Amino acid sequence: MKTLPILAILFKVIALTAQNPVFLSKEEAMEDFKWLRTSLEYVHPRLYKYDSREAFDSRFESTYNSIRDSMTGLDFLSMVSKINASVNCGHLYTIPQGKLKEQVLNKKVLPLYLKVINDELFVRYNCSEEKSIPQGSKILSINGKDIAEILALMFEGIATDGHIESRKRRLIERYLFYDIHGFDLYYHLHVDRSTSFAVTYQPYKEVGRKTVKLNGVSIGERKKLLQDLYNRDEEAWLKKPSPQFELFEDENYGILTVSRSFFDEKVDPDYDAVLRETFKTLKEKKIGNLILDLRNNEGGSEHHQIELMSYLYNKPFKLYQNIYLSHLDFRPLKPVVIERDSVDFLFNNDDEYMRKLGNSLWINNYEYSRNLKLQPPKSDVFKGKLYVLMNGISFSSAADIISDIKKTTNATFIGEESGGTFEGPTGGNSIVVQLPNSKIMVRISPNIQMGYMYQKHPIGRGVLPDHEVEYSIQDVLAGRDLELDRAKTLISENKK
To answer: Mean pLDDT throughout 195-223?
Structure first.
């Protein structure tokens, strides 16, 4: 018997997936929704931070009562995403699995790469067969829905910290990790599931409007076209070494770029070694200005965070004042918890590292973690002027270090509001729940990590920039780096 080529098999699998979408009976959807509510109420320690319990209960009950018949897996995924997004916690992830994930990843998508500017959508790259849409064109509507309506529908299903909208905008234009965020996912779940797109647009530098019909393409096809047509690698962010340091000795400044806070041994240099050499050089050459670029850093390593802080603050510092936990015993969720051995459902508290404050709240009893212990500053601590570049993708430990710098230095912040709350995240280890019928995975953190040296700040907001930067589509097309340009200008002005 002849073996089908691998590509043919792949297309056959995709076709079968499209022909057999995931469906849930009314009873299955209700069971999954009950488990979602039970898990959130049991695990999440800040469920009622931004809404009252009454509002949360009302939202859950009205959504549950809306399940009147069988429904598609995608409709249920949209429903779960919106409920989770309403918690206003960026670490609450909704992730499709199995056949539902295949549906999400194998869908036909808009053959355009889009840029969000001031709640408007612009064409960054056109990878469609219809070449009449020039780069820079403003999208006015898609399949009859105007962009304001589309963005509002998307925002409702994007989980971010607190009241931070900068992260929602940046996640829409993020073309990575297609099963958890990005325009394609949000549009498909919350707006429209068509395989073709009637796009009304205003051509770049023209008045009036035009409408064209674009056929959807696969994610892989669009990615290849981006490379072929524009020589752009969709995964460049993952392939650029981090951290990197550049010295401009004549201009008296250096640039330290930390674009990622997780280590890839195939790409990245030794983090500690780069920092050690960077700050040694700054001190030896008496460099007075440092630009720290934390844009697009999604966070990750707490070690990266405390190590960098020890070079930026000249006094002992620790990451957290306190760590709280919702529970130590997660056995009530054993039927749906995955990625955890049975022995780990009950946290060992024999040495009383946690103290119970209430039915759903524990606090650290002593400094059981390095992150709770004061760490000394480095001998090469930087004493010059610091400029921090940030955007809405600066999240988790990256947003935390931005907050730490805000509390401890006279740094100047440039860009847009950081993507994580100033007061500290719901982060750290997760309890991973898989809903039994839809197989949707929900990552819920039981931790509250209260940042050290807390200062008064608007609750639910990130660090706000001293110099807010707003791009025009002309800036984007010209490849300008407005945040970096602003930092250089400030350094130059301070010389005078």
So the answer is: 96
Residue 2's pLDDT is what?
Answer: 39
Closest by Cα among 243, 196, 235, 246 to 216: 196
Name residue, tokens 């408007």: 120
- Mean predicted confidence (pLDDT) in 428-446: 95
Inter-CA distances, 436 with 66, 97, 346, 369, 439, Å: 20, 11, 22, 35, 6
Nearest one of 464, 475, 472, 476 to 414, comparing CA atoms: 464
Section 379-398 average pLDDT: 97
Q: Which residues are registered as beta bridge partners of 200? A: 141, 211
Q: At what angle do helices 397-408 and 302-312 cross, to 10 degrees?
A: 20
Q: What is the pTM of this model?
A: 0.93
Contact present, 120 and 138 (Cβ < 8 Å): yes
pLDDT tens sequence across 261-311:
988 999 999 999 999 999 999 999 999 999 999 999 999 999 999 999 999
C-alpha distances out from residue 257 to 10, 291, 308, Å: 39, 8, 12
Task: Classify residue 487 as exposed, middle or buried by CB count within 10 Å of its CB (0-12, 13-18, 19+).
Answer: buried
DSSP letter (8 states) at residue 339:
S
Q: Identify the band that residue 19 occupies on the pLDDT scale cut at 50, 70 and 90.
A: low
- Alpha carbon distance 261, 271 (integer Å): 9
Q: Give the span between the Cα atoms of 400 and 108, in whole angstroms.
A: 37
Q: With beta carbons less than 8 A apart as the criterion, state whether 385 and 458 touch.
A: no
Tell me how crowded residue 45 is: count the other CB atoms within 10 A of its CB: 20
Q: If you count DSSP H runs as helices and E runs as strands, how many of each does the chain have, helices first?
A: 15, 22
Phi, psi values for residue 382, rounded to 5°: -75, 130
Q: Give the end-to-end CA distance of the chain in Å, rounded to a whole number.
A: 80
Strand ranges for 118-241 from DSSP E: 120-126, 138-142, 145-146, 196-202, 210-215
Per-residue pLDDT tens over the stretch 30-75? 999 999 999 999 999 999 999 999 999 999 999 999 999 999 999 9
Cβ–Cβ < 8 Å for 229, 117 = no
- The SS3 of residue 189 is helix
Of 307, 350, 296, 314, the C-alpha closest to 481 is 296
Take residue 39 and report the two structure tokens written for it. 């898990």
Name the nearest CA neighbour of 135 among 203, 227, 217, 216: 203
For residue 343, the Cα-to-chain-centroid distance in whole angstroms is: 31
